[in-house]
Amino acid sequence: MGLRDFSFAGAAGDPAELKAEKFAIFLVAICCCIAGCIWAAMYYALFGPGLTPLLPLVFVLAVGVSLVVAHVTGNHRIAAYSQIVGIIALTAVVQWHVGGIFDSGFVMAWAFCGPIVALMYFSVRESAFWLVLYLVCIAITGAFDDQFAVDRLVIADETRTLFFLMNVGFSSVVVFVFASFFVQGMRREREESNRLLLNILPEKTARQLKSKGGTIAERHDHVSILFADIVNFTAYARERQPEEIVQTLNRIFTMFDRLVDEEGLEKIKTIGDAYMVAGGLSERCEDHPRRMASLALDMMASMEGLQRDGAPFMLRIGLHIGPAIAGVIGKTKFAYDLWGDAVNAASRMESTGVDGRIQVSEAFRQSVGDGFAFEERGGVEIKGRGRMHTYFLTGRA
Predict the structure, then answer these.
(1) Residue ranges of the chain with pLDDT lower than 70?
(2) What gap in Å lies between CA 176 and CA 113, rounded to an integer?
(3) Which of 267, 291, 348, 365 is catalytic?
(4) Any idea which fold 202-396 has?
(5) Per-domain residue ranges for the chain?
(6) Phi, psi (rounded to 5 degrees) for 269
(7) What is the reported pLDDT for 6?
(8) Is 348 a residue of the active site?
(9) DSSP conformation class of 103
(10) Cβ density class 112-141: b for 16+ within 10 Å, e for less
């Protein structure tokens, strides 16, 4: 079993984030024990047997015991508390015993790692207690440093300089590593939040939501809208297990998502086995009617490919173009959506269409221009709009 497979203080059902936190506590504890042994050996070499080299070993023993207890009980915070208390208390006692700030080489520089470690595992409010404890130890040192120096150990100037360089230098490196851990974590969280936001909203709308907040609503005078419905999927779903249904839908919609991204259009939402796309919501997509026509043809071709593989589905697509309002609704599980007569008309183009074909309105056909082939269908009765002249998009000219 490798180190990555080791589960410290593990419990059934631990989420990945908690497992990572527990493993981090374990690694920090091991590093603390190694550092304690190194400092004990150094103090023993300089001062011989006595309390000074013994104190780091007491710290190592306390942390080691806490690791065992934490692992057996499944309470990883026991190890975290042991590390924090040990780092702050040990460095304070060592500094006072050696002879104060000057003779110890300011060994209490290590104590600041205590509040930093606390921030890794606890809330800011909980961590503030350990910061206060650290400051109290600093205050005691400042107030009674002369008294500590009375019984100080005999230390050469070169040794004091070495202590100072090691204590300040190494502790600074540790604090930097901890700080980089936080910064990288924040950066990853921010990037993940931005990625998730851009999965829900167009880039321009996402920027507005982050900078302004409040109500986000825009009127667009020229929006291409596509509705697609997977024919026969309801009957298919009645005979399948939930996992198979979701896997099949995910396969189809992931394929559609890729095609939408390639055309630079905006996926708006999925509604059951229906799929909605819009174009013209950003300034970078001026030829959105042609892109939407290409998307519809590619979606139909991809579904025909699934049919050849044995899938019992067909696709029915409707296209329309016109004015629409786009905006973000809701405070929790918010959604980006489109409203307006053009949206309703596009939906009717799909629902009154023919299985395996792409029905478009007169307005959409005119907006596309040359480069595509159409077949006239004639007048179709559309609820709420009366009779509309429609066409079938049959391919690229």
Answers:
(1) 1-6, 148-154, 211-215, 283-284, 333
(2) 10
(3) 348
(4) Alpha-Beta Plaits (3.30.70)
(5) 3-198, 202-396
(6) -170, 170
(7) 63
(8) yes
(9) H
(10) bbbbbbbbbbbeeeebeebbebbeebeeeb
